[in-house]
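Final report, results section. Input specification for complex C-07:
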Amino acid sequence: MTPAKITINNNEINLHVSSSGSWFHDSTGAIYKQLKQFVIPPETQSVTWDFSQIDDLDTSGIMIIIEFMRRFDASRVTFTYTGMKPEHQRMFLFYRKNFIDSQSHTLKKDSFFYSIGQNFVQMLQGFLAFNTFIGINAYQLWLAIRSPSLFRFKATVKHLDTSGLQALPIVGLTSFLVGLVIAYQSAEQLKQFGASIFIVEMVSISVFRELAPMISAIVVAGRSASAYTAEIGIMKITEEIDAMKTMGFEPHRFLVLPRIIALMIAMPLIIFFADMLGIFGGMLIAKGQLGLTFSEFISRLHAEVPIKHILIGLIKAPFFGLVIASIGCFRGFQVTGSTDSIGRYTTISVVNASFWVIAINALISVILTEMGI
Amino acid sequence: MQTNTNKTLSRKSIIKLEDIITQFGENRVHDGISFSINKGEIFGLLGGSGSGKSTLLRQMILLQEPTSGLISVLGHNINSLSPSQVEALQLQWGVLFQFGALFSSLSVLENISVTLKEYTQLPLEVINDIAHAKIKMVGLPPHAAWLYPAELSGGMKKRVGLARALAMDPKLLFLDEPTSGLDPASARAFDRLIIELKYMLNLTVVMVTHDLESIEYALDRFIILHDKKILIEGTMDDVHQLQHPALDTFFKTNKH
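Structure output:
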């Protein structure tokens, strides 16, 4: 294939353009640049463009010809062309009919302040929508309390299994490692002060009060918030939720309440499990690094660490469950139309859930400390 | 049939299938299928559900492989191509999938210009010009350029899919059930569009369809697959001459 070529001869008032070769996209880019640099001499009155040597022509070639015809038009130069092959002419006229000037037809970019305002309004709308969502669920819960037969026990048990029981291995392992690391890092320091025995309080209080609840909640947020968003989001795209509505199955009662209730029940149990494994991790290090036997560790735990620390950790649990499940489900209902938005909302849901778990934990910590507990 | 065969020989064939056998496990879908498609025609692959017409289309565009048999497209034997030849060949055809298969994260304009941006060194202005012209060419309003697939109706998605398939100026266009899911008026408009584009852009069109009106209105020639083999290759006139119970059920049940 010979590449596209163009030569322009200037005879005072008449420009003669001759072109040859294959006007295909692999070589027309160069032609475009060449023509763009070309300045139409001011004395020019007419242009003749000879196409007879062009072997092949594709859309990119036609677009370049059209662009420059328009330029000649704009500078009031009469334009004539000769020698175009019939099949090229057919395509050329067809594309000329369908030409849209893409430079004048661009998408308006929003101004900076407009985007700020728009984001603010969207945040506000999101907040209101979340309130509505919580309201609907509270109402459905009220209905279910008044007539318990409305409550979906089976679904709840299923979610207890998938979001609770099946989360135990990974939550347990994470918590075990965290207990291990905390003990390992403190053992050296405590040994220097000759206060090795305090490893028990050190590990148990931090694991019971803060670490086990937080770790469990973040792992569950990653596991279940994303799953809830994706499940409900896909049901929304495939119109399953609309189908449910037409059959009188209120989606909040069937999909959301079982998930929220299941996670509120599961979270304390998960956290208790995480407590045990975290402590076990600490015990191993205490034995290995400081020579503290398991029975010494446990009796010290009994004697010195009040039960309130475990309870404080467990009290937070249902709130975590509530936050994770409601955010997961809420974002699922926000999914619209495309498969693209499932990915987007799943990400948002995990980020939101993790953030709110941390924020609520901080809030509860401050409140309890201020109350002197 | 005799005249038809002569005509086939005299014209340049652009796709040729020889003795295709396709088997999924125990289930044989094609048992020795041979036919060829000529340059410049609108060719139909017809048949009942499960007759393997979509499989045949997918084999021609390298998405599936037959168990045995020869397929040559645009003069290349597609069973023995190097990866670079595959890429070069893929740029010479366009495919419209049944539901458009648009990239949902890209706008209509980006969907159409994605191959141009990837495979050509054209300046962005020219690419945008091309994409806008393709949008208008398939009968979409100019502002559709900024929409995302989720915001389009089924018919619009097919038109965008068609514009995307034609972005690189292929000479060969594959359509998978182009009129399914469209209302009758839109389906006929789509047929007209395909005929117009075929004429304007010198295309060869291969389509899978079971829309009877589209078969009568748009197709130049077709094959009907039945019971693993080709029941008939030809035109509507050939169909009228042949008596076969399967033909009756195919054309009657489709009428409804």
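The CA atoms of residues 12 and 243 of chain B lie 30 Å apart. Residues 102-164 of chain B form one domain. This concludes the modelling results for the funded period.
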